[in-house]
Amino acid sequence: MQIALIRLMTRDKYTLQSFTNFPLFSRSLRDFWGRRYNLQVGTVLKESIFQPLSLYISSRMIIALITFIVSGLFHVHIVLAVFDDTSSALSTFLFFILNGIVCCIEAYMGIQLPQPFGSLITHVFLLLTASMCIGHCTREATYFSVNVPPLYGNQWIPKLPIPSICPK
């Protein structure tokens, strides 16, 4: 609705770019980071780092790894500036290095997995490594009290009774 509203209000002079492009359909990690997740930041990294470096460096894999390193440094800055958590800085940086290395391996191997299997492998990898990047959010004691999940604790939502066979 927002995309349509922006186009109507500006008479097609401006469009609102979507934040994601169905990341659950990613068939590879390169597809996830390059074409599906966080499109605004991906566009900024592509236009400000990847494309200018491609004029000087011929290897696209090295340029991609440098781009992941810069993205990792940005995220480390957020961890240090917002959360003041020096213990999570290294793991956050390693998350992006690891994802960059795996993306380079995917590009080098050139294997295209079928849609359901590729999506499963991609998201299992992301779930296994996500704690490296967002662990500081889950360990922060005040995070969930300040950022309460939507509809948490609402009384008007019907709740099923807990079965008697469940341990207390």
TrEMBL record:
<feature type="transmembrane region" description="Helical">
    <location>
        <begin position="117"/>
        <end position="135"/>
    </location>
</feature>
<dbReference type="GO" id="GO:0008374">
    <property type="term" value="F:O-acyltransferase activity"/>
</dbReference>
<protein>
    <recommendedName>
        <fullName>Wax synthase domain-containing protein</fullName>
    </recommendedName>
</protein>
<dbReference type="Pfam" id="PF13813">
    <property type="entry name" value="MBOAT_2"/>
</dbReference>
<dbReference type="GO" id="GO:0016020">
    <property type="term" value="C:membrane"/>
</dbReference>
<keyword id="KW-0472">Membrane</keyword>
<feature type="domain" description="Wax synthase">
    <location>
        <begin position="23"/>
        <end position="98"/>
    </location>
</feature>
<comment type="similarity">
    <text>Belongs to the wax synthase family.</text>
</comment>
<feature type="transmembrane region" description="Helical">
    <location>
        <begin position="90"/>
        <end position="111"/>
    </location>
</feature>
<dbReference type="InterPro" id="IPR032805">
    <property type="entry name" value="Wax_synthase_dom"/>
</dbReference>
<comment type="pathway">
    <text>Secondary metabolite biosynthesis.</text>
</comment>
<keyword id="KW-1133">Transmembrane helix</keyword>
<keyword id="KW-0808">Transferase</keyword>
<dbReference type="GO" id="GO:0006629">
    <property type="term" value="P:lipid metabolic process"/>
</dbReference>
<dbReference type="InterPro" id="IPR044851">
    <property type="entry name" value="Wax_synthase"/>
</dbReference>
<feature type="transmembrane region" description="Helical">
    <location>
        <begin position="61"/>
        <end position="83"/>
    </location>
</feature>
<keyword id="KW-0812">Transmembrane</keyword>
